[in-house]
Amino acid sequence: MDEDEQVEDDQGDVYSDGSRSEMVEDDEMSPEEEGFMEGFEKDNKKVRCAYCKKIIIDPDDAIEREREGEVFLFCSEECYQAFKKEEADK
Q1: Does the global pTM surpass 0.70?
Q2: Where in the chain do CATH 2.30.170 domains reside?
Q3: C-alpha span between 42 and 38 (Å, rounded)
Q4: Backbone Cα Rg of the chain
Q5: Higher-scoring residue by pLDDT: 78, 19
Q6: Residue burial 69-78, b: 16+ Cβ < 10 Å; e: rest
Q7: How much is the pLDDT for 60?
Q8: How is domain 47-89 classified at the architecture level of CATH?
């Protein structure tokens, strides 16, 4: 394994929960860094409005509509209506 592959392997470990916990226990990572990585990981999984692309903080509050077997989430009824109009105009 060359040096570049080793760096990639080390970085990959930071992204798994188990490896982060081990790194904190071994004093290779601070609890604050572990929290940052966990937050970063969760932030990348945020749900966005299908129309305006704003992050939907609570997906339970989103407006969910299905079209042609695909589920779309919207942050507001206005975004859903605008999306629907835009699709109809195509």
Answers
A1: no
A2: 47-89
A3: 6
A4: 20
A5: 78
A6: eeebbbbbee
A7: 84
A8: Roll (2.30)
- Classify 68 in phi/psi space as left (phi over 0), alpha (psi -120 to 50) or beta: left
Helix (H), strand (E) at residue 71: strand 70-74
Give the side-chain half-sphere CA count within 13 A for 29. Answer: 21
What are the φ and ψ backbone dihedral angles of 29, each rounded to 5 degrees? -145, 140
Could you report the per-residue pLDDT of 29-56, keeping only the tens digit for each? Answer: 787 776 766 665 655 567 899 999 999 8
- The tokens describing 52, both together, are 């305006």
Residue with tokens 């299905």: 66
- Are 83 and 74 in contact, with CB atoms under 8 Å apart? yes
